[in-house]
């Protein structure tokens, strides 16, 4: 039996008097909490369903949405010419949702520990979404150096490293470079594509030539950023490009 030391006793007393609240539901966290979320909120993270659009994974409203097709596409993918072959996400990102609150807190609140726990969720979930043996490398969507310096980390790199470690896939950290600091994405898909249209370049084409690459990012919204990255990777000689994100915006 482990004996409690003075620091453990002090920590327990302070937690009793000044309990740390969960950053989502504001209920007190357990003394041995390892992130800013309580166990109830972790358990209530909204998962993406297993079935949906064959390309982007968007969940159809019901069996009628598939139209009986063997590989059904959602309206977005029927109307959009993407450069990536497939896109999948682990969590649903929606207003007032726990996943959205956790991701925003981790990314903009500097909660690297929370982000690493979310990365663990993606690493565990990824094989249910994609056949990881189909991919030769993971490519994190890059931040511009100024934004990375301000934030202290690139969330896409944290996610990619977790998936790579769990499944033995190399992470090509500097395969892509963001050449200009784009404003935050907003507006319709046309405005978003214009915003990132020439933002990315391949640093070393030899590193990506002939390889099947899985782009990793935190959130898939319209697919504009993912498609811009996929386009330059394919032009540099990549054999195939897919997308894996922690969450998908509804």
Instruction: Quote the average pLDDT.
Output: 82
Give the H and E element order: HHHEHHEHHEHEHEHE
Number of domains as seen in the coordinates? 2
Report the C-alpha radius of gyration, rounded: 20 Å
Strand proportion:
5-15%
Task: Report the uncertain regions.
Answer: 8-18, 63-67
Task: Trace the largest sheet across and list its strands.
Answer: 1-6-5-2
How would you describe the overall organization of this protein?
- With 250 residues, the chain is an alpha/beta fold.
- The chain has two domains: 21-50 and 81-249, 3-Layer(aba) Sandwich (Rossmann fold); 51-80, no CATH class.
- It contains ten helices and six strands; from the N terminus they run αααβααβααβαβαβαβ.
- It has helices at 6-17, 39-43, 75-79, 98-108, 112-129, 145-151, 155-167, 189-196, 205-208, 224-235, and strands spanning 86-93, 137-140, 176-178, 200-202, 212-220, 240-249.
- The strands form two sheets. Strands 1-6-5-2 form a four-stranded parallel beta sheet.
- Helix 4 (98-108) crosses helix 5, helix 5 crosses helix 7 (155-167) and helix 8 (189-196) crosses helix 10 (224-235).
- It is globular, with a radius of gyration of 20 Å.
- It starts with 5 loop residues before the first helix and ends with a strand.
- Residues 8-18 and 63-67 have low confidence and may be disordered.
């Amino acid at each position: 039996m482990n004996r409690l030391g003075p620091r453990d006793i002090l920590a327990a007393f302070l937690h009793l008097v000044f309990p740390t609240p969960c950053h989502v539901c504001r209920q007190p966290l357990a003394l041995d909490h390892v992130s800013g979320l309580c166990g109830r909120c972790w358990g209530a993270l909204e998962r993406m369903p297993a079935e949906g659009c064959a390309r982007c994974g968007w969940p159809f409203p019901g069996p009628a949405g598939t139209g009986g097709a063997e590989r059904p596409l959602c309206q977005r993918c029927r109307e959009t010419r993407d450069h990536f072959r497939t896109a999948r996400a682990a969590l649903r990102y929606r207003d007032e949702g726990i996943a959205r609150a956790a991701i925003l807190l981790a990314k903009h609140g500097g909660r690297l520990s929370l982000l690493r726990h979310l990365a663990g969720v993606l690493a565990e979930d990824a094989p249910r979404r994609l056949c990881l043996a189909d991919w030769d490398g993971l490519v994190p969507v890059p931040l511009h150096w100024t934004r990375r310096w301000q934030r202290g980390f690139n969330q896409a790199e944290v996610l990619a490293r977790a998936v790579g470690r769990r499944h033995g896939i190399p992470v090509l950290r500097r395969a892509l470079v963001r050449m200009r600091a784009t404003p935050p994405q907003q507006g319709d898909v046309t405005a978003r594509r214009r915003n990132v249209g020439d933002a990315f370049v391949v640093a070393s084409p030899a590193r990506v030539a002939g390889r099947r690459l899985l782009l990793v990012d935190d959130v898939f919204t319209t697919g504009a950023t993912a498609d811009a990255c996929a386009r330059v990777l394919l032009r540099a000689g990549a054999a195939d490009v897919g997308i894996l994100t922690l969450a998908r915006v509804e």
